[in-house]
Amino acid sequence: MTVSASGDAGSPAPHRFPVVVVGAGPAGLTVGNILRAAGVDCLVLETGSRAAVERRPRAGVVEEWAVRGLERRGLARVLLGRAQRHTECEFRFGGERHRFRYTELTGHHHFVYPQQFLVTDLVREYADVRGGEIRFGVRDVRLHGLDTDRPSVSYLCPDSGGRRVVHAGFIAGCDGAHGVTRAALPPARTRVARFDYGVGWLALLAEAPPSCDCVVFGTHPRGFAGHMQRGPDVTRYYLQCPPGDDPENWPHERVWAELRERLGAAGAPPLNEGRLIEKRVLDMRNHVVEPMAYGRLFLAGDAAHLTAPIAAKGMNLALHDAFLLGDALVARLTEGDGRGLSGYSAACLARVWDYQEFSQWLSEVYHGPASADPYRAGTALARLRRLFDSPVAAAAFAEQYLGTTTGG
Ligand code: APR
Predict the structure, then answer these.
(1) What is the C-alpha separation between 397 and 390, in angstroms, rounded?
(2) For a Cys-Cys bond, which of 243, 315, 345, 402 suits 59, CB 3.0-4.6 Å?
(3) Per the omega criterion (within 30 degrees of 0), is the bond before 221 cis?
(4) Mutate which of 46, 115, 140, 288 to test ligand 1's pocket (most atoms within 8 Å of Cβ)?
(5) Is ligand 1 within 6 A of the CB of residue 172?
(6) pTM of the model
(7) Ligand 1 centre from 176 Cα, in Å?
C-alpha cells in the first residue's frame, strides 16, 4: 500500500467517479447499491472474482434492524423469502439445557442468512439491476492524494496487467480486515484499540443436518462449543481451542468426540455427524480504528473494526456503517449536505463500541469455565444463571443479543 500525493501512476486513460468503493463484501456492495439507487455513479473495485465472493462462507446472522434497513433500500427481497427466522437459543451448562426465548421477551428475532447469499443478492442488484460498475480481479490497489480535493485510486488491471488510475470524489474503504485502505490513514491521526481474548475457535462446517432446532451455546470446563444451523444439510460448529492451533490437530473423530462432550446435556438430541467441509482456526481478537475517516476516505465494516465472531456482530456492524455511509454520500453528492459525512465516524463508533462491550461480556461467559481459574469459572456461571433467574437481566441480554439497545 502506498499513498502518494499525485495520481501520476502512468495510466493510459484516467476516469472519474463521484465515489470509488474498494471491496465488494456486504459493506461495499451495500454502499454501492445505495448510491446507484440515488443515481450517483460509482465504481466498485474487488480483488476476488465474482464467483469467489459469491461462494465464500463467512458470517450468517443478520439482526432484524439490519434486515429492515436492507428492506427500506430495496435490498432484502430474496433474503426475506429465504432466511431462517430465529426466536430462541439454548445455553447448555452444568449438564442441562436452558432455552432463552428472546422473541417472547422483545418481539424481535434474528435472521440467519449465509453471508455469501447476501453478497450474491447485492452483486446482482448492484451490477445487473442498478447498472453499477464493478471490476473484479483487480490487483495492487493503491490510494493517492487523500489529503487533497482530488484523491484517486489506482490498480493493476487483470486483463492488460497495466496500472489504471481512477479519480474519485470520495473513497469508501470497504476492503475488510486484510485490505489496504486502513493503512492509508495517517498513523499520527489514527488510534487503533486492540483486544486479544487469548483463545482460538476452531470454525467447522459440517455436511450434516442441524442437531437442534436453534442455536446452541455450550459452556464447559473443556471449552466453549457452538452449534448454528446454516441450512437443511449444512451446520456450523465452533470449538474453543488454543490460539494459533493447527486445524490438522483436529481430525474427524476428535472433533465429534469434543462436540459430543461439550454440547452434552440431559435430554439433548444426539449430534448429527457429517463430513467436515471447512476447518479453520480463528484467533479471537478485536480492533477498532478511530476515527473511521481521513479527508475524503471513509472506512466501513471490517476495514475499520474487527469483531471476533463471539456475538455474531461483524456483518451487522458492516451493514450499519454502510447504511450511514451510503446515505451520507448521497446527501453530500445530491444536496450538498455534508452533515452525515462529518458525523459518520462518531455515529458508527457508538454501535461499534456497544457491540465490542457485549462481545467481551459474552466472551467471559463462554471462556471463563475453561480458564483453569475457579474464580472466572464461578462468575461466568453466575452470569449465565442470572439470565434465567432475573427477568430484568434477561431483557437486557436480549436487547444486546438482538442489537436493539442502540436504537437500531
Ligand atoms: N482491493 C479490493 N478489494 C479488496 C482488497 C483490496 N486491496 N482487499 C480485500 N478486498 C475485498 C475482499 O476480497 C472482500 O470481498 O474486500 C471485500 C471485503 O469484504 P468482507 O471481508 O466481507 O468485509 P465487510 O464487507 O466489511 O463485511 C464484514 O465480513 O469478516 C466478515 O464476519 C465479518 O460479516 C462480517 C463481514
Answers:
(1) 11
(2) 315
(3) no
(4) 46
(5) no
(6) 0.94
(7) 3
- Classify 107 as helix, strand or coil: coil
Q: Name every residue whose Cβ is closer than 8 Å to that of residue 300 and which is 6 or more positions away in sequence.
A: 27, 28, 31, 172, 173, 174, 292, 318, 321, 322, 325, 348
Name the residue among 166, 184, 182 with its Cα closest to residue 174: 182
- The answer to whether 252 touches 276, Cβ cutoff 8 Å, is yes
Cell of 244: 494459533
User: Residue 11's pLDDT is what?
Assistant: 46
The grid coordinates listed for 206 are 459440517
C-beta atoms surrounding 131 within 10 Å: 9
CA pair distance 398, 106, nearest whole angstrom:
7
> Out of 3.40.50.1100, 3.30.9.10, 1.20.1270.90, 3.90.45.10, which CATH number does the structure's domain 85-110+197-284+371-402 have?
3.30.9.10
Q: Give the pairing type, strands 152-156 and 163-173.
A: antiparallel
Q: Which residue has the cell 480535493?
A: 149
What is d(CA 231, CA 139) in angstroms, rounded to the nearest whole number?
Answer: 34
Q: Is the minimum distance from the CB of 174 to ligand 1 under 6 angstroms?
A: yes
Strand duo 163-173 + 191-207: pairing: unpaired
Give tens-digit pLDDT for 59-81.
889 999 999 999 999 999 999 99
| Residue 58 CB less than 6 A away from ligand 1 | yes
- State yes or no: pLDDT of 58 exceeds 60: yes
